[in-house]
Each structure stands twice: as structure tokens, then as C-alpha cells.
Design brief:
Number of strands of chain B: 15
Distance between the termini of chain A: 74 Å
Distance between the termini of chain B: 33 Å
Number of helices of chain B: 19
Strand order of the largest sheet of chain A: 27-26-25-24-32-31-30-29-28
Oligomer: heterodimer
Largest sheet of chain A: 9 strands, antiparallel
Number of strands of chain A: 40
Shape of chain B: globular
Chain lengths: 657, 532
């Protein structure tokens, strides 16, 4: 029976932190690994020791089996936990770990390999009695009709190799089949270099329901009930819950039985997940088996009271699984990503200046970041998982939405508003959401904030700004803010939000604030500090938390979160206004000795335009910005006076305008 | 430190009547300040704005630190004269990049910002405040020069502006000229005499002679820009240290210059706790009667002005018509001299002379709250040496070197005005409440004195005294003196630095004390000969 004393966690982010927490609780030392961008990451601090993986890219670091095993050796680790993603489902890695004499915390390499081949896995498990969607490979285009007839409509035409929805087509009737197959073949060939086409029954408005299974080395396989992961964006799960609102006890029993059957069929050891697609009628079919700990495992932990990482480590040390589990209550998890749902889910990078989610009763936060974390482009954009647990689904929903909405997340854009929008949408609350939810509801609709927020937040930003300035002034700090013995214009501050809109806040203490000239009615400022403004507007009193980072002001209140950028009152002029924009002037009298560009030529910033000789020195004149040489009034040999215009280079923006 | 206990009853009829009077006076004040603020009036302001220029007050607002206070000075200069209220010039004290500065801005909407005799006095007073308090000066220049019809009153004393600017420079007090427009002829010397100058492109015109004058003098044809544009001065003459692309840029550069002064105040503090008074300052409005003859206890004012209402009284049982004692305002310690019942007797005068010496020993600034009808008259007092005692007090006030701040809260008559550090005694700053009066004596007394003198003269010459004519003359004189004692009349002539809302007293004193502490605060031990 192997004994794990020191565990190398071959992962990063929240899961590495989470694994370390349980390992430490079990008295197991931990070793973290980190790529260069993660040098200061919480997962490094969470472990007892850490080993650097030089480089940035995952391929050079977290995916390097050799480096990971060497790290385990160097630190005297006796086991490796792969977490999820990276090498967690890489059979070769599992084999090499075992070959190095280390315990791999996961199923046997053969199991990983068998389940990694999705088509073969379906065949294998279908044979074991696990329901699989009818489907098959189209060998000749002529076979398609016969195959389609066997599968039934509607069906899905897709590339056998590849993914991401490319080459995928829904076909609802025989007539459209031929054209769909031909098109899919062309697309698949172009995209993946293999034009093999696969037909499969299309499940309309499907739900994604999966069952957590656990096997031990003593032949036991347990089902820890289902999770519903129907809220997805491009096959990326966003919200997961347990139990599923679409599963009744009878269905649950059938799902669990099928999952256990799958586990037994492959002699499963450790934590795994059997994923099913569930249709409106309650029929379910196998999607795939994941041979690792899932991102969404906490919902199962909260409903069953089990620590799945602990179970993994126990099983890996040869312990037997506990008796039949029971589940109670409802857990919902939301995945907080550094991405901007409004702008096509563009990944967001930068410094996470504040990461503050209150871990109240019934709220668990599994985070891989903290205040000041750098969010880079190299790895998964998951910042944290927030999980709510409550006696009922409604309450868990509300609890999670509230915790997320009051979280303070500054510096990088996140999908928080989207998550809150989903959790508060009638369709989700009714338990009626399927995997097409985010196709039917736009991010903009779900992220729509409170209409009162912009004005209140802008007012709070201005009030906090003046409080900060008053508190930090070197002189006259005790004098009332903006005091005048002769009435004057109100104090004014201009903020930019998003990219092009401006908000002008004018104010006169104690109680006058106008947003773009419109006074806030019934304003009472109870307190204004640099980091907190307590005000009543329109009869409602609220506290707005204010966090300034440079010129950016982050505001959080019950109305939501805003980000404003304060514009300088006296900005540095962009370019000389006296000369045409982009004029290059002679610094002193001299002679033009060289002209390196021609009129109309495009130049890069810093590119040599011409050279002037003066006082036996050659002075190079370079382009101040990228743009076009609009005018070149001088030529070689020409003498020029100080201040003479040598060339005009219009910047790109102006050239466009 | 003992804490003052107020006995003011805000529910009394007197309180309500007093408050009504004060509010009416404040409404009148606000009306006049609005006139000053309006500058040359809507038409000229609109024309100025249409030319893409900022008004003097907009320039000041952008120059000052955001949310910082600004104490405007001499706002009602030229009130009641042929010139616009405010005299076409805005001056004041406010922080720029954390440095308290004196700001002097021409108002180009008032006759092109030209300087009239009142504007000159206002300008000189601002420069004097800068010099006495060691405050950097920022001039926001856009002026057509002297108001030529009044040149006779302007030309000779006007040289003092040049004198004072360069003297400030010699004293190590920075001077900065931000030129937004015309600064021609004599005005051209403003940027020339300042330590720093910034000229706005296309707007600043700095030359001794404009195109017509040059053509007349030498026949040369030259345009504005060649003679005195920002580009020329920044690249050719070197008069401009900085070339500003527009007014905002000019203000930005001006702020940068101040930030780069590496400025340090030479006075201490604030050194004391600056907690708010225990009583609401708003209640001072119920304190002062419309009838100047009704005295009020200045401790009621202090209880609403000084830090924590703390006041350590000096000689409380001696010379009780003058309250003296120690307090602090916004953390700056002060010695207070406040008239309690109008008249100054020998005891009060001696007490004041002692107290002023003590303040000088401890380098403590002095605050004078004036409400005096003057030194006591009458045989007993003359024989008791009231002249000698008054002289002691005036001697001490004159030679005291700690900063003096003076506030007329009621009356400032006779030599009491001198003893209580009036304008002639160079207080660093001097303000009045709107109902305060200032004159050699009260209007009725003055008219009465003239009537008695007239009666005596008639008797001496043996002619009949016409009672009816006397009555007419007496009331005419009384009305004239009443008018000339009015706070607006006094402030219009630069005899103080402004009329303030009594509710702003603590704030104004705080700003004034802080400004005074830019210069070293040091008392003296040298006085004139005290007559014993």
C-alpha cells in the first residue's frame, strides 16, 4: 500500500490551491510548480515548496512531463496530482509518472487512454449497456441516406476529427442531407485536413448532465450523483449545479446506474465523470468520460459533504471508498472568467487590482488569484469559482447571485455581470435552461446593469475624489471642500467610461451634484471618503465602495459595478497647435544634407525623415509618429532657419479622419 | 484649556431680530458680489467666450487645486464709483499644487481688462499681501493697459506695480506671468519683470508699441505676431519661457512651474488640534444687533470660531471692556484682542499693550476683533492719562512683528481703529462683517459735534444761530457719514480686504493664518518708548 508523504501538484491556479488545502489537512507536504508568469501566484504561496518551470507557454512549462517528474524527484515528492486540464488526461504522462516510481493520483494510464479516444470509448461503453447516441461515420456520400434513416432526424453532421463546431450542421429532413454532408466534408477537409464525416442524432434543447463517479482499487465504484452543466458558452461550462432541476429520483437512479456501469466496464479507479446529454423527454445518452477531477467538483462536495481530493488521495493510497453517499441541499457553482462577454468574450488581461469576494455562510470561493495578480494571456482565463450551497435551489441561486454581484473585481474585465444575469433570469430560475441558453439570450441583455448606476456611481467617484484630494492636500486641509467667499462655478470633473462616452460631474458640497448638467434629486451626502461614499439619492441610501488605481476608478454598490477613467482637467496638448499637426521644425539654422523620405510616403514612428547639418554636426529629424509624409518643403542642400518647417507627418488617426 | 460656554438663546426675540437684520445685509452683500462676478456683463462675457477664451474666474478655477478653497480679496473694490464693482480685476489667495499663492487676474470683459485707479490699488494690495506673507504671485494677464481717461491718477502710482514685482523677485518670492491676451505698452513689463512667463499662442500680445505706434514712430510695417506673439517671444526674444498652445496648456504649464518651485513655508504649523467649535457658527447671525450701540460679548463669537471653543483668557478681571486670551484657529495658535463693550479705557489699553508683548515673546499671531467706539473721553480719563495709555497700546500694535489679522465685527471708530490694528497698522489681512461700520466717529456724534461747533462759532461772532438750517445740515451730514461708514463704502476704497459672511469667519481666518505662516512668524522685543 503506497503512502503519500509529499505531493507534487502538476497544475496552477485555483485547482492547485484547492489540492494543496486538502493535502495539508491530511498532513501531506505539497510541492507547487510554476511558470514564469506565475512567479507570484497564490498557488505557489499555498504550497510548502515550489519548483520553477522556466518559460511562459504551457507547452514549455505545465505540459512538460519531463520537467514535472524532475521537479518531483528534486523535491522528494512521492506522488503527482495532475489537477484538471494540462496533463490530467494524458496517458503517457500517467505512465511516465508511474515509471518514475511515483504515485499518479488518477485512474490507470490504460483507462485514461481508453477514454481519451472518444469514438472508441463510446463503442466500448455502448457495448457495456451505457446508452450512446445513435450515429456513425459516413464512408461514401451515398451511405449517408441509409445511415441517416437508421439514426433518425433531426441529426447532426460533423467532422469526425476536429471540434469547435466547425463543419457542424444540423439537418432536420432527408432532402437537406446530401448538401449538408458535402459542405461539411469540404469544410472539414479544409479545416482539419481530414474530411471524415460523422452523423449523430441531434438532441434538441439538450441539457448537459453528468455523474460523478469514484472507484477504488478494491473494485468498488460509487456514483456521487449528478451535476447539471447546461449553461455553456461554446462548450465551455459556466454554471454548474447539483442536483439537476431536470432530474427526478427515478431518473437519477437510472443515470447513476449507467454511470456506475460505465465505471465498472473500465475498472475505474479514482475520480471520474460520466457526461450525458439529456433530452426533454428524460432520455439520456453518453457524451464522454472524463478521467480526472472536474472543475465543477465542488458542487458535489457541498451536497455530499465529501472532500473529493481527499477521496482521490485516499484511493491512491489504496484505501477503500466509504459507504453509499447521501446528498442533501443544493449547490451552484459559477465560473468567474477574465473575459468580456459584451465584446465577444474577448479575454481580458492586466492586473487584478482587487479580488474580493466575501466568503459568507454558504458561499465557497475557490480562487487562484488575489489582489494584484497579473492576468496574462498564457493560460486559462478562469479566475475563481464561486459556489453557493443552500437548502433549496432558489436560495442557492439567490445567494450566489448576491455574492457575485457584491464581489469587487477590479482591473480586468470579468464575466461577473453575465453570471449574475443568468442566475437572475426567469428561465434559469425556473430550472428550464438548456445548453442553448446563451444562444437565445445575448450577453448584452444579461449584463444590463441598473439604470440608476451610472449617475450614482459617477457622483460617488467625484465625491470620493474630492475627499481624497482634501485629505491629502499639503495646506488648508481643514477648510471646507471647494470653499469660496464669492460664488463661483461648481467643481467639475470629467470621466470617460467604455471607450468614447464622457460624463461630466459638477458638484458643490455639501449636497449638490449634477451629472451632465442634471442635478441628482434629493441628494444627501452622509459621508464621503476616498474609498467609500455613503449617499441618499431619490430617497434611497446606499454605500458605494470606491477604489482608485491611477486614473481609473472602480465603483461597487448594490447597483452594480462601474469603471470610470478620470480625464485630466488640463491635458498635455497632443501636438503643437501653432504649426500644423505633425510639423517637424528645424531646431537651429543649418543645411539639409539628406532627405530620406518622399512626400506621400508612409513612415513609422522614429523613422529618419531628413538630416540637417548645423555647426558641423548632423542632426537627424525623425517621424514623431506613424503616418504619412504630407509635405516636404525642403530639399538637400537647402539652408533652413531655426523654426522652419522641414516636413509635416500626419499621424494615422488624422490621416484617416 | 478652558472651554467657552455660550449663553446665546437662539429662541429669543432679539436673536431672531438680529438674524433678520444680518440676513438682509448678507443678501445685499451677495447682490454686490454677483455684480462683481458678472464682470463686464452678459454681453461682454458672451463675446469673450465666443472668441474661445476663458473668463478670469474660469482661469482661476482651473489654475487652483481642485476642491481647494479660494479667498477672494477686495471683491467690492470700486463699489459705488463710476467703475464696475470689483474694478475689473480678480485677486485672491488659493493653493496651486499645494502652494498658497496670490492670484491676480485681469477681467478682460471689463473695458478690455484695463487698469483703473481702484484696480491699481487692488493690484498693489494683492502684491503687498504677497510680500508680507511671502506668497508666490501668479498674474493672469489680459489687459488693455491703463484706463487712459484716468491716467492722471494711474501713471505715477502705477510704477509701483513694476517696483513691487521685481522687489518680490529679489525677496525670493516667485512671480509668474501667464499671458492670455494683451499685455502691451507698460503691461509688457509684467511678463518681463516676473520670474516665469508663459504666453498663449495666437492670443498673447506682449510689446511696447503695437503696429500703429511702430508705424508712427519708425515707419516700419509689422504685425502683432511679429511684434509680440507667443511664438516670437518663445523662439526669438526669449521673453516667454514657455509657449502654450492654448489657455488650458498655459494653466497647465503655470501649475507645473509652481510644482517645480520646491516651495517651503517658513512659518510653523498648524500645531494645535483643529477640532470644530462646540457651537454652530450659523448662530453668530443672531448675535449682532442692527443698533451698533447694543454691545455683544465677543466670547460668543470666539465660541463659534476657535478650535474646540477653547479660550484661555488673560486678565479676565482687569480692563474688562477688552477681552484678551489664547486660542487656536484651524490649528494655528492666536492671541485674541476683542472689544467687549466698545470703549477702551486706560486699563484696557495697558492690558492690550502687555498682551501684545506676550504674543510677540511667544511668536503667536494676533487676532483683533474690532467693535470699538474709541478711547474714553472726559476729564477723569484725560487726567488719568488716557492719551498715554492709548499711546502704549498703539506703540505695541505698531511695532509688533507677529502676523496681525483684523476683523471688524461691529464698529471701528476713532483711535480705537488704530489701537485695534486697523488698515494703517498693516495687519496681514483685514476683513469686515457686512453690518460693521468704520469712521472717525459715529454719524450722529459727528453731526452733533459739528452742530455744537457751529453753535459756538455763531455765538463767538455774535450772530444768530439758525436752528432750522442746523437741523438740515445736521441730518445731511449724518446721512453722509452713515453712508461713508458703511462696510461696502469702506471696502470699495481698499480700506479692508473684503466683507465676509460672518458664518465664514472661521474659514477665512484659517486661510489667512495659513497664508501668514508662509512667512516666518517671529515676534519683536523692540518697541518705541512707552510713556509710563
Amino acid at each position: 500500500m503506497p503512502l503519500i508523504r509529499r505531493l507534487l501538484i502538476a497544475n496552477r491556479g485555483e485547482i492547485a490551491v484547492r489540492i494543496a488545502r486538502t493535502a495539508h489537512a491530511m498532513g501531506i507536504d505539497t510541492v507547487a510548480v510554476y511558470a514564469d508568469p506565475d512567479t507570484d501566484s497564490p498557488h505557489v504561496a499555498a504550497a510548502d515548496q515550489a519548483v520553477r518551470l522556466p518559460g511562459d507557454a504551457a507547452a514549455d512549462t505545465y505540459l512538460r512531463a519531463d520537467l514535472l517528474i524532475e521537479a518531483a524527484r528534486a523535491t522528494g515528492a512521492d506522488a503527482v496530482h495532475p489537477g484538471y486540464g494540462f496533463l490530467s488526461e494524458n496517458a503517457d504522462f500517467a505512465r511516465r509518472v508511474e515509471a518514475a516510481g511515483l504515485v499518479f493520483v488518477g485512474p490507470a494510464p490504460e483507462t485514461v487512454a481508453a477514454m481519451g479516444d472518444k469514438l472508441a470509448a463510446k463503442e466500448l461503453l455502448g457495448a457495456a449497456g451505457v446508452p450512446v447516441l445513435p450515429g456513425g461515420i459516413v464512408r461514401e456520400d451515398g451511405d449517408a441516406h441509409e445511415l441517416a434513416a437508421r439514426i433518425g432526424f433531426p441529426l447532426l453532421v460533423k467532422a469526425a476529427f476536429g471540434g469547435g463546431g466547425r463543419g457542424m450542421r444540423a439537418v432536420r429532413e432527408q432532402a437537406a442531407l446530401h448538401e449538408a454532408v458535402a459542405a461539411a466534408r469540404r469544410e472539414a477537409g479544409a479545416a482539419f485536413g481530414d474530411d471524415t464525416i460523422f452523423l449523430e442524432r441531434l438532441v434538441e434543447r439538450p441539457r448537459h448532465v453528468e455523474v460523478q463517479i469514484f472507484g477504488d482499487t478494491h473494485g468498488n465504484v460509487l456514483a456521487l450523483f449528478e451535476r447539471d452543466c447546461s449553461i455553456q458558452r461554446r462548450h465551455q461550462k459556466l454554471i454548474e449545479e447539483s442536483p439537476s432541476p431536470a432530474v427526478d429520483p427515478a431518473l437519477r437512479a437510472r443515470l447513476c446506474a449507467a454511470a456506475v456501469a460505465a465505471g465498472r466496464a473500465i475498472g475505474y479507479v479514482g475520480a471520474g465523470t460520466v457526461e450525458f446529454v439529456l433530452d426533454r423527454a428524460g432520455a439520456f445518452h453518453l457524451l464522454e468520460v472524463n478521467t480526472r477531477l472536474q472543475v465543477e467538483h465542488p458542487v458535489t462536495e457541498l451536497t455530499t459533504g465529501l472532500d473529493l481530493v481527499r477521496l482521490q488521495l485516499l484511493v491512491a493510497q489504496g484505501h477503500s471508498l466509504p459507504a453509499e453517499p447521501v446528498a442533501a441541499g443544493h449547490a451552484i457553482e459559477a465560473r468567474l472568467y477574465a473575459e468580456d462577454p459584451i465584446r465577444g468574450y474577448a479575454p481580458s488581461v492586466g492586473t487584478l487590482h482587487r479580488f474580493d469576494i466575501a466568503e459568507r455562510d454558504g458561499i465557497r470561493v475557490d480562487a487562484g488569484v488575489s489582489d494584484g495578480s497579473r492576468i496574462g494571456p498564457h493560460y486559462d482565463a478562469l479566475l475563481a469559482k464561486v459556489i453557493a450551497y443552500a437548502p433549496t435551489r432558489d436560495e442557492a441561486c439567490r445567494r450566489l447571485a448576491h455574492a457575485l454581484s457584491r464581489a469587487r473585481l477590479h482591473g480586468v474585465r470579468t464575466n461577473r455581470d453575465l453570471l449574475v444575469g443568468i442566475l437572475r433570469s426567469p428561465e434559469f430560475i425556473a430550472g428550464d435552461a438548456d445548453t442553448g441558453f446563451l444562444d437565445r439570450h445575448s450577453a448584452a441583455e444579461l449584463c444590463a446593469g441598473d439604470p440608476a448606476a451610472p449617475a450614482i456611481h459617477a457622483a460617488a467617484a467625484a465625491l470620493a475624489g474630492q475627499a481624497e484630494r482634501r485629505a491629502t492636500t499639503r495646506v488648508l486641509g481643514g477648510i471646507p471642500s471647494g470653499w469660496r467667499n464669492v460664488r463661483s462655478a461648481d467643481q467639475q470633473v470629467t470621466y470617460a467610461h467604455d471607450t468614447d462616452s464622457r460624463t461630466v460631474v459638477s458638484y458643490r458640497l455639501p449636497d449638490h451634484v449634477a451629472i451632465d448638467g442634471k442635478p441628482l434629486p434629493g441628494l444627501v451626502v452622509h459621508a464621503a471618503h476616498a474609498d467609500r461614499v455613503d449617499l441618499t439619492a431619490d430617497g434611497v441610501r446606499r454605500t458605494v465602495s470606491v477604489h482608485r488605481v491611477g486614473d481609473t476608478i472602480h465603483l461597487d454598490s448594490p447597483l452594480g459595478a462601474s469603471e470610470l477613467t478620470e480625464l485630466p482637467r488640463l491635458p498635455e496638448p497632443a501636438a503643437s497647435a501653432a504649426e500644423p499637426a505633425g510639423s517637424l521644425l528645424a531646431a537651429m539654422p543649418g543645411t539639409v544634407v539628406r532627405v530620406a523620405v518622399a512626400e506621400g510616403q508612409r513612415v513609422a514612428a522614429g523613422q529618419l525623415v531628413l538630416a540637417v547639418e548645423a555647426m558641423k554636426m548632423e542632426h537627424e529629424v525623425t517621424a514623431p509618429h506613424c503616418g504619412i509624409v504630407r509635405r516636404l518643403p525642403v530639399g538637400p542642400g537647402e539652408s533652413v532657419d531655426a523654426g522652419a518647417v522641414l516636413a509635416i507627418v500626419t499621424a494615422d488617426a488624422e490621416a484617416a479622419g | 484649556m478652558p472651554v467657552l460656554r455660550s449663553r446665546l438663546d437662539p429662541r429669543s426675540d432679539t436673536y431672531r431680530e438680529n438674524r433678520t437684520t444680518q440676513l438682509a445685509a448678507l443678501a445685499a452683500l451677495r447682490e454686490q458680489l454677483d455684480l462683481a462676478r458678472a464682470g463686464g456683463g452678459e454681453r461682454y462675457v458672451e463675446r469673450h467666450l465666443a472668441r474661445g477664451r476663458l473668463t478670469a474666474r474660469q482661469r482661476i478655477e482651473l489654475l487652483l487645486d481642485q476642491d481647494a478653497p479660494f479667498l477672494e480679496l477686495s471683491s467690492l473694490a470700486a463699489w459705488g464709483t463710476e467703475f464696475t464693482v470689483g474694478a475689473g480685476l480678480v485677486t485672491g489667495i488659493g493653493p496651486v499644487c499645494g502652494v498658497e499663492c496670490v492670484v491676480i487676474a485681469n477681467d478682460p470683459t471689463v473695458r478690455g481688462g484695463s487698469l483703473n485707479p481702484y484696480a491699481l490699488r487692488k493690484n498693489l494690495r494683492a502684491l503687498e499681501i504677497a510680500r508680507r506673507n511671502r506668497l508666490p504671485v501668479i498674474s493672469l494677464v489680459e489687459s488693455g493697459g491703463a484706463d487712459l481717461p484716468t491716467q492722471a491718477e494711474l501713471f505715477v502710482p502705477g510704477g509701483r506695480v513694476f517696483h513691487d514685482l521685481t522687489e518680490l523677485s529679489a525677496l525670493g518670492i516667485p512671480t509668474i506671468a501667464l499671458v492670455f491676451g494683451n499685455s502691451t505698452a507698460g503691461g509688457a513689463y509684467i511678463p518681463g519683470l516676473c520670474d516665469h512667463s508663459v504666453l498663449v499662442a495666437g492670443q498673447a500680445k506682449v510689446f511696447l508699441g503695437g503696429p500703429p505706434l511702430v508705424r508712427m514712430a519708425t515707419g516700419e510695417e509689422a504685425d502683432d505676431e511679429e511684434l509680440g506673439g507667443a511664438a516670437m517671444h518663445a523662439r526669438v526674444s526669449g521673453l516667454a519661457d514657455h509657449y502654450a498652445v492654448d489657455e488650458y496648456d498655459c494653466l497647465r504649464i503655470g501649475r507645473r512651474i509652481v510644482a517645480e518651485l520646491n516651495w517651503r513655508k517658513h512659518g510653523p504649523g498648524p500645531t494645535h488640534p483643529a477640532d470644530e467649535p462646540l457651537y454652530d457658527i450659523d448662530e453668530v447671525l443672531g448675535l449682532v444687533s442692527a443698533d451698533l450701540r447694543v454691545p455683544f460679548d465677543p466670547r460668543e463669537v470666539l465660541a463659534r470660531v476657535v478650535d474646540g471653543s477653547r479660550f484661555g483668557e488673560y486678565k479676565p478681571g482687569y480692563g474688562t471692556s477688552l477681552v484678551t486670551g489664547w486660542a487656536s484657529v484651524h490649528g494655528f495658535p492666536v492671541g485674541v484682542l476683542a472689544n467687549a463693550r466698545g470703549v477702551l479705557f486706560g486699563e484696557e489699553s495697558r492690558k492690550a499693550a502687555e498682551f501684545i508683548q506676550l504674543a510677540n515673546r511667544s511668536d503667536t499671531p494676533l487676532l483683533f476683533l474690532q467693535n470699538t467706539t474709541g478711547y474714553m473721553v472726559g476729564t477723569a480719563y484725560e487726567q488719568g492719562g488716557i492719551v498715554k495709555d492709548g499711546a502704549k497700546m498703539i506703540n505695541a500694535v505698531t511695532n509688533s512683528t507677529v502676523p496681525h489679522l483684523t476683523l471688524n465685527i461691529g464698529a471701528s471708530f476713532g483711535a480705537g481703529n488704530y489701537g485695534m490694528s486697523g488698515r494703517a497698522f498693516d495687519p496681514r489681512l483685514l476683513f469686515a462683517w457686512p453690518t460693521a461700520k468704520l469712521a472717525v466717529m459715529g454719524a450722529a456724534q459727528l453731526a452733533g459735534v459739528l452742530s455744537i461747533v457751529g453753535r459756538q462759532a455763531a455765538a463767538a461772532r455774535g450772530i444768530a444761530f439758525d436752528e432750522e438750517v442746523d437741523e438740515l445740515r445736521r441730518s445731511a451730514i449724518e446721512a453722509q457719514i452713515e453712508r461713508e461708514s458703511h462696510a461696502f463704502f469702506v471696502t470699495a476704497r481698499l480700506y479692508d480686504d473684503g466683507v465676509i459672511d460672518p458664518r465664514d469667519t472661521r474659514t477665512v481666518l484659517g486661510i489667512a493664518l495659513s497664508a501668514a505662516h508662509s512667512a516666518p512668524v517671529a515676534g519683536t522685543t523692540g518697541y518705541g518708548v512707552f510713556r509710563m
